[in-house]
Automatic annotation (TrEMBL):
SUPFAM superfamilies: Calcium ATPase, transduction domain A (SSF81653), Calcium ATPase, transmembrane domain M (SSF81665), HAD-like (SSF56784), Metal cation-transporting ATPase, ATP-binding domain N (SSF81660)
Lineage, highest ranks first: Eukaryota, Sar, Stramenopiles, Ochrophyta, Bolidophyceae
Alphabetical list of InterPro entries matching this protein: ATPase_P-typ_cyto_dom_N (IPR023299), ATPase_P-typ_P_site (IPR018303), ATPase_P-typ_TM_dom_sf (IPR023298), ATPase_P-typ_transduc_dom_A_sf (IPR008250), HAD-like_sf (IPR036412), HAD_sf (IPR023214), P-type_ATPase_IV (IPR006539), P-type_ATPase_N (IPR032631)
Keyword Amino-acid biosynthesis attributed: no
Protein name: Phospholipid-transporting ATPase
Amino acid sequence: MGGRNSKSKGDVLPNSLPQNWPNPSEEDIKECPTRNIIVNGPQGYLFASNFIRTSKYTAWNFLPKFLAQSFHPRKKMANVYFFLISCMQMIPLITNTYGIPTVLMPLSFVIFVDAIFAALEDLARHKADDLANASKALIHDDAKGSFEETTWSNVKVGSFIKVLNRDVIPADVIILAVKEKTAIAEGRAYVETKSLDGETNLKMRRALKNTLNEIKVDSDVKKIGHGEIVMEHPNKLIDRFKGTFEITGGEKEVVDPTNVLLRGCTLRNVDWAICLVVNTGLDTKIMMSNTESPVKTSSLELRINVEIKRVDFYLMTVCLFGAVGNFVWKNQEMLDAWYLKWSTTDADETASLHETDFKDYNATGDFLLSAIVQFFYYFLLMANFVPVSLYVSMSTVKYFQATFIENDVNIYHEETNTPTKVRTMALNEELGQISHVFSDKTGTLTCNIMDFRKCTVNGRSYGKGITEIGKAAYNLQGDTIPEDILAGEAMSREHAEMHKQPHVNFYDQSIRFDLVGANGDEQAQALEDFFTVLALCHSVIPEHDEETKEVHLSASSPDDEALVCGAKFFGFEFMDRKQGIATLRLSNGELRSYQILEMIEFNSTRKRMSVVVKVDDRLELFSKGADTVMIPRLSEKINQEKLLDDTCKHMTAYAKEGLRTLMICKRTLDPAWWEEWHEKFHTASVDLKEIEKRLNGEPNDIDLLAEDLETDFRLLGASAIEDKLQEGVPECIADLANAGIKIWVLTGDKVETAINIAVACRLLHPEEYMEQVVIAGGGDTNTKKKLVEKLIDSIRQFEEDVKQAGSADLVKPRALIIDGPSLIVAMQPEVQPYLLRFTQCCKAVVGCRVSPDQKRQMVHMVKEKVLGVKTLAIGDGANDVAMIQAAHVGIGISGQEGMQAVNASDYAIAQFRFLRRLLLLHGRWNYRRMSKLVCYVFYKNIVMAITQFWYAFQTGFSGQKFYFEGGIQLFNIAYTCFPIMLLGVFDQDVEEKMLLKYPQLYNNGIRDAFFNSKVFFHWILAGTIESLVISIFPLYALQQTGEPNDRQDFLPSLWHYGATSFTLVVIVTNVKLLLNQYTFPWFCTLCWILSVGSWFASAYGMTNVLQIDFDGYKVYEDLMRNHSYWLCLLVVTVLLAMRDFFY
C-alpha cells in the first residue's frame, strides 16, 4: 500500500505513508516524517482499512494466480519443463504422439493435487479472516453520543472505541480513560499479550493524563475537543511507540508504549477502556509482525537439484547419441536400401508424419538437419528422465510425515497440553542429518521456573543443601559430597514440603534468628534492607481474583517472581502498587507504605533494575543487577572491600551449584540533588529524539542520567535462584553426543554457572575424561595475539595427540569454554579461522555471557564455513530468535518466555528431551525414507525411458516408440506412484526401540550415507542395466514361441515387444521397491498389488475394451494367452531381483 504523502486532488485523500512504503528511502522519510491523526475531526489522509485479508487467493483470482505460481521458472522449474515438453509434442516435425500433448495429463494431475493443498490451506486463512472481521466492536456514534455495536472491519483510524473487560482489542489504540475497580481513578489498565508474544503475565498500561479525568460516561467523549496525534509510522516493534497527543488549548503529552493497547491483546482487570484508534488493519503491529521466517530448503532437496543437472546431462548424451547414430546409419545403410523410395510423392500414405518429413530431408541429402530434428525427437521420447511426480510425491509424503510427528504421544507434553508442532515440513528429512546442535540454557535446558534457594547478606551466607548441579560439580572434581551438605539438602526439602511457598526452596533457621537481632542489630538491619529491596525493586503486578479473593503475582520475569516470593517467605510481602504507593505487609501484620518516585527497568544492555522510593522523609535508591555491572558502581567512600570479597566468594560458590545470582544494593539520596536530577531525567524521558536514540541503541541522555543515579551504592548482599534442569535433559544430551552430534550451549550465565550446568547435563566430563580449554576473562585473552597463540597451542596439542593415538576417536575429547568478551575478539576476521578450527576438534562448546547476536554469529560461522555440516538451533525466548532463524533447522520451545521463539521456528516442542526422539527416530526415519523415494523415483523413470533407447539399436536409431502412450502417461501417477509414497510414510528399517537404544545409528545421516552422489549413481546405473535386460530379453523370448491357440501364422510385432517390456518395467520396478522395503503393513501390500494389477487391467482395457490405443489393438489379448510371455515375465523379474534379494 505504498504511496506519496502529497496533497489531495479533488475528493481523493493522499496516503498517510511515505513514498515507496514499506521500504522508504531517507528522503522519503524526510518528506513524510510522521503520521498525523486528527482527534474529533475529519482525517486529512487515507489510512489502511481494518478489514483483514491474510489469504492468498480469492474465488476470482485463484486460477490465474495459482497457475502463475505453478509455472514460475525459478520455483517450479519441473512444471515449466513438462509444459515445454507438451508444447513440443504438438510440433509436427518432432512429435511422437500424433501432435497430441499427452504429457499434459500427468502434469495436470500434479498441478491439480498442488491446487487442492493450496486451496485447503487458503481456506483456513479465509475462515480465520472472516472470524476476525466479523468480531464485535463498540464505536462511538457522534450523533447519538453513545457507543454502538459494529464489526471490527468498520473500525477506522481516529475512531473512539470502547473495550470491555476481557474483550480483545480490534486495532492499535491509545487509552484515553478507564473504569477501574478501585474507588480512586489512577488510569491503570492491564493487558494480556499472549496472542502477541505468548506471555501469560499481565502488563500494566496507563490512560493519558490529559484525558484520564475528562471521560466518566460515554457522552463525555465529546468533551475532549479537537486535537492531533503526531506519531511514528507503523512498525512491527511491539515494545516501541513514539508519539505526542495534543488537544487545542491543552498541554502536549508524550505517548509511549505504556499508553497503547495493541490489536489482538486482551483487556483485563477494568470494567472498560475508552480508546482512540491509531493503527488499523495491515498497519497494526501484530499484522506487521507476521513476516515469514527465512525460506529454508533441506540439504537433500539442494542435492536433488545437483543430481537433476547430471540426469539432464545423461538425457542430453542419450539424445545426442541417438541423433548421431541415426545420422551415421542413414549415411551407411539407408541410401543403399533399394526397397526405400526416396520420392516424397511415392511415400506410403500410411507413413507417419514423422517418417514423411524425414524422407523430405533425405531426398535433399540434408542429413545434418535431419540429425538435429532427430535429437529433439529423442528428447521427447526420453522426456520422462525427469520424473513429473517427484515433487508432488515429496510434498504428499512430507505432509503425512508431519502429521505423524504432530500426533506422536511420546513428544506430547501432557502437563501443558502441548503437542509437537511442525511449522516447516520441508525440513522433515533434515532432522535426520544434524551434525551440530546450538542450545540456549535458560528455559531450554532448564525449566525457567525459579526458586529462591540461597542468599548472602552483609557477608554472611544463608541457605543449606545442594542442587543437582552442585552434586555434578563434586563429581566433576572427583570429590565426595560432605555429609552435612547432604543432610542440609534433606532438611531443605523437608522444610519446603512443610512450609509450602511458591518459588521458594529454602532452609536455614539461622536467618530467622538473625532477622530478630540474634546476631546483632547491624545484621538484622542489613537483612531488613535486603528483603525490602527484593519486595520493592521489581515490575510484578498483583492480580486480585474477585471470586476466590486470592492474589496472583503476574511477572514479566520468572526471576522477579521468585525474589518477591522469597521476600514474602521472610516476612516482607508485597501487597499492591497503587497511585505510586507500594504497600508491604510485614510478618507482624504491619502495613508499610513506600512512595515510588521513579523506576528504571531492566534490559539486556543495562543488566540491572532500580527504583527510587520515599519512606519516612528519606529518599532511597534500591537496585539489583549482575555483578559485572554492580561492582563498578559500588561506593568508594565507605570501606566495603571485605564485604565485597565475602559476597563474591559466596556468589562463586552459588554459581558452582548452577544458581543464578544478582547483587543487591542501595543508596540514600540527597533531596536537593534528587530534585535537580529528576527534572533533567523527566525532560529527557519525554524528548522524542532521546527516546529514538535509546530505542536505536545510541548514546542518549536517558541512559546517561541513569548512570549518574546508579552509583555510590552500598552493597547489601546477593540472591541465589535455582532454575532446575528439565526432566530427561542429561540423558538426551548424552544420546545426542553418542549419535555423533556436536553440542554447543550458549548462555548469558557466568562461567562457573555455565560449566557446572554443562556437567550436570553430561555435556562436560571430569578432567580425566575430557580436556577443558577455558578462554574467559583475564589478560591472556584481551589481545588478538595471545588469543590466537592459545588457540594454536590447543590445536597443535590435539593434532599431536591424534598422531600418537592413530585416531581422533582414541584421543581424550576436548571441550571449549569461552565467554562473551573473549568471543568478541575471537570472531574478528583475523582470529575466527583459528577459533573455527579448534571448535571442530571439540566434542562440546560452552559459550558464557554471550549476547543474542553472538549466538547468531556462532551459528552462522559454523553453517557457512564448515563443509557439510547441518546445524540446529534450539531456544525458548526472544533472544534466541536470531539464532533459530540462522540455523538450518530452528526449534522453538514453548515455555515461560512467550512464543517468539516458537513463531520463528521450523518445529516447536515443549521439552528439550523431545529433541532426542525428534532427531534419532523421526529424523532418521524420514531422511532414509526421502532418500529412498528420490532415488527410486529417478530409477523407475530411467528404467522406463532407457528401454526405448536400447530398442533404437533394432530400428536404425529411428527413435521408434514401442510403448503405448496411455501407459507412459499413467506410469508415474498410477502404476508406481502410491507404493513409494507409502514407503516414504511408513517404512522402518530399524525399529523404534533399537534406534533409541543405539543412537550411533543416527550417524548415517550425518555422513549422508543414504543419499549422496555415489548412492544416486548406483540407482541410475542399476536402472540403466535393468532397462537393457528388459528391452533385449523379450525380443528373443517372444521370437522363440509358437502360435497362439486361436491364431495361425502369428509373429510378434513391435507392439508385442513393447507391451512385454512395459509390463516388465512395471513389475520389476515395483519388485525393486518391495525388496528395499522393511515393513509391510497390510495396506502397503494391498497398494502394491493394486498398482501392478492396475497396469494389467488398464492395458487390456485400453487395447481391447475401450480401444483407446489403436497401435496396440488386441495386443494384450494375444499376449495373455501366450505362455512364453508369462515365462518371460517370471525369468526376467527373478533375474533382476536377485541382486537386491541377496544384497
